[in-house]
Design brief:
alpha+beta; 4 domains; 17 helices; BirA Bifunctional Protein, domain 2; four-stranded antiparallel sheet; about 40% helix
């Protein structure tokens, strides 16, 4: 079967639209007011309030194509299947249908000649084997049997294989996963889909959300049972076209052609060159989406910006090994902008910003790359044994801008390992000395959820934006936010530092709105009606056709997904602790609520 990525998107959304699902737009790659993760890693992230029982404006049956970023397996990028950015096709039941319908529809979509037409004899599935927290999922196994999957291709696996939760707490439950037999021989008589020998490739995951995991590790039943499915677009296109690697699909062809043109080398002949080209293709695509996101990320030394910097610098280093000229990274990004211009229009709209940020980061890193690699080779020639000390890794980071992961990669290429824990200790000491806070999150680390505190701080961001627009003018627009239980961080468009008087007046207006005990009300309406009422839409096209508008008296009116306090009087005293630059044309405020 020959199928493009766009055809698969259309077939999937059309299939579920015919079955009563509303098509919703992809949310931002930057989770809104969720301190637990740096990026949207699954389709469920933007929908967590609705999985917990809040009513979605678009109804109880939804379908989407969600942009996702995962960097936990970044070292594996370059093989046949791992990616840092990917698109997840999903369909959702918010307290409506459950596993029977979900499994039957998945089987129909995969095997029906009208849709994907996969050979059912090459499909295997896994279901939850059961434990003390939840029973064995015999019910789902029986549904698969009724669909036509024989018992010998239904595998019961434990929680580590067949249980889904995004993070450590929140909505979760047993899942059933669908695998394609690649045709490779079984590695043993006990080979099953949990094996990584390459025989089985996961293409779809149906999660039956029945529980809410608490911070103490207990599982409470959810009031409404949900279905959350995810099918990786790139992997599925690979399978449908009988390809060996996800990098062989249409989405990567233009980028790999450009890399070959710029490097003068051929893709597919030499394993080292092929791996380097795949890393460049993957990392530049992810960087393009992160910079071009409606919320937007720029390279920095913290949080999402740190991960973005790491991806760009790794791509630059690989480009250098292939002899590619300066400016190559931005040239490859242009190819992706063209590939996705009609699917994710934000890339087209932010094309100049994407090129500018990539070129600036390449320039910054190129100045130190040669010197840093030279220093690394000098260091390992003098150290006893084969472990690079943490202090040495920190010096490479502090002096040459080498992310520790790059030092690990360089070390591995030369037969060494790195004392990463020692590096983290040195980094933490450095942060403490400069009063810059606690240790950095290296791989999208977790922060504890904040409940009421986070809700109150999110509510305060509405008041803050309204106050800023009164003080600085209506050109102020939110560019991003990050909230933990202790503080809010709010980025907004403005071309210069605020004066002390402007900061004081903003703080005064927010506290005045809090002291007025304004009720926080929510109303659902079509997005065009919301705009006519004067509601602010923070991120353009990220909303669906029907939206929630939160109003706080006569002070603030915004389109938003929540969560919010019931009354501004619940918030406490608002204090701005810092005002600083975030990036070109963007300022950042940090603030706290004191009871």
């Amino acid at each position: 079967m020959n199928i493009t990525s766009q055809v698969l998107r259309e077939k999937f959304l059309g299939f579920f639209k015919e079955r009563g699902h509303t098509v919703i737009a992809s949310a931002s790659l930057i989770p809104e007011n969720d301190p637990s993760v740096l990026f949207t890693t699954a389709g469920m992230h933007p929908l967590i309030p609705y999985l917990l029982g809040q009513r979605h404006p678009a109804g109880r049956r939804l379908t989407d194509v969600q942009k996702c970023v995962r960097t936990g397996d970044i070292e594996e990028v370059g093989d046949d299947s791992h990616l840092t950015f990917f698109e997840m096709l999903g369909n959702w039941s918010l307290g409506d249908y459950f596993n029977h319908e979900s499994i039957a529809w998945s089987y129909e979509f995969l095997t029906s000649k009208q849709y994907l037409g996969l050979d059912p004899d090459r499909l295997s599935v896994t279901v939850f084997a059961g434990d003390d927290d939840a029973p064995r999922d015999e019910d789902s196994a029986k549904v698969w049997e009724r669909c036509g999957i024989p018992k010998e291709r239904i595998f019961f696996l434990p929680k580590k294989n067949n249980w889904w939760i995004a993070g450590t707490t929140g909505p979760c439950g047993p899942d059933t996963e669908i695998f394609w037999d690649t045709g490779k021989p079984a590695c043993s008589d006990h080979c099953d889909p949990s094996c990584d020998c390459g025989k089985y490739l996961e293409i779809w995951n149906n999660v039956f959300m029945q529980f809410n995991r608490q911070a103490d590790g207990t599982y409470l039943p959810l009031e409404q049972k949900n279905v959350d499915t995810g099918m990786g677009l790139e992997r599925t296109v690979c399978v449908l076209n009988g390809m060996k690697s996800v990098y062989d699909i249409d989405l990567f062809k233009g980028a790999l052609d450009k890399i070959q043109e710029l490097s003068g080398k051929k893709y597919g002949d030499d394993p080292k060159i092929t791996r380097a080209m795949r890393i460049i293709a993957d990392h530049v695509r992810t960087a393009t989406f992160l910079i071009g996101d409606p919320v937007g990320v720029v390279p920095s030394n913290v949080d999402q910006g740190y991960v973005l910097r790491r991806l760009i610098r790794r791509a630059v280093r690989m480009a250098n090994t292939l002899g590619m000229p300066k400016g190559s990274i931005a040239e490859i990004a242009k190819v992706y902008i063209d590939v996705y211009r009609d699917v994710y229009t934000e890339l087209r709209d932010n094309a100049a910003k994407i090129a500018d940020e990539l070129n600036k980061e390449e320039e910054r890193f190129s100045k130190t790359l040669v010197a840093g690699e030279k220093e690394f080779m000098k260091v390992i020639s003098h150290i006893p044994g084969n472990v690079v000390p943490g202090g040495t890794a920190f010096k490479l980071y502090d002096t040459f801008g080498f992310p520790v992961e790059m030092t690990v990669e360089l070390a591995a290429e030369n037969g060494y390992t790195v004392d990463v824990e020692g590096f983290k200790q040195k980094f933490a000491e450095h942060q403490a000395k400069s009063h810059a806070g606690s240790e950095q999150r290296f791989k999208g680390g977790m922060a504890e959820g904040g409940g009421i505190e986070t809700t109150h701080l999110h509510t305060a961001t509405h008041l803050l934006q309204a106050a800023l627009r009164r003080v600085l003018g209506d050109e102020v627009k939110q560019k991003g936010s990050n909230i933990t239980p202790e503080r809010l961080r709010f980025d907004f468009s403005f071309s210069r530092p605020m004066t002390a008087e402007e900061i004081a007046e903003t703080e005064r207006l927010v506290n005045e709105a809090i002291d007025r005990h304004l009720p926080v009300t929510c109303e659902e309406m079509p997005i065009e009606d919301a705009r006519k009422t004067g509601a602010i839409g923070l991120f353009g096209d990220r909303y669906g056709e029907v939206v929630k508008v939160y109003t706080m008296g006569d002070f603030s009116k915004e389109i938003c997904g929540g969560p919010h306090a019931a009354n501004t009087g619940d918030l406490g005293h608002f204090v701005i602790t810092k005002e600083q630059s975030s990036s070109a044309g963007v300022r950042r405020i940090k603030a706290e609520l004191h009871k």
